[in-house]
Description:
This protein has 239 residues and is an alpha/beta fold. The protein has helices spanning 38-47, 65-77, 91-99, 156-166, 186-199, 212-222, and strands at residues 2-7, 23-26, 30-32, 57-59, 82-85, 103-106, 111-114, 117-119, 123-127, 130-134, 137-141, 144-149, 171-178, 203-207, 234-236. The protein contains six helices and 15 strands. The protein is globular, with a radius of gyration of 16 Å.
Amino acid sequence: MRVKVLFDKETCDKKLHTGWGVSFLVNDEIIFDTGEKGEWLLENIDKLKVDIDELKSVVISHQHWDHTNGLWALLEKKKNIKVYICPDFSQEFKDKINNLGGKIVECKDFVKVDDNIFSTGQIEGFYEGGYLLEQALVLKIKDNLVVMTGCSHPGIVKILKIIKNKFIKEKVYFVFGGFHLMDKDNREIKIIVEMFKEIGVEKVGPTHCTGYDAQSVFKEAYKDNFIFVKVGEEFRFSA
């Protein structure tokens, strides 16, 4: 399997746009999250030579602007594409998808998006005192799991434990995306890193809303297994 980084806060090529939110492309067919601005996402897609006609579906982790704003530009370019969302997303959001010709797939529990690619379904979390639902994306590569997260508002450890309860025999090989640890102190971050180790996570790529302090703690703990995730990079995973 292949994952290309379409949007994030760091880049390996200054010609590519960066900003809030993330967007990852799986096997040239599935986009996970769409970044903060549709124009920037489409320009990155063009510069990275991604064929929009090959896209089958978009998975939206949660309903925050920096993960959803690129969706509308994609839907204007590609009709009849499947959009995997949490059932509790707003009706206004669902109506906009329908009006732009998207096909909604609601993910209450684990849902197969494609061969060996799964949504976790909606996981309960809280943000700024409010109720928030979020899903993550899981790639199953033989006995290994690759996990992509948007912001991890429900808690990154909670998300990983739910995934491990579903895939009991598989190893969590690589976890990357937003871990949302900007508001945590070093003591809390170190506990979370320890829990990653207990779960057996082999490689990490914390980005976006993780926070620089938390990234430093993960890097110190994981050393060569800390992966810098930047726009324009491609990760390949083989069985």
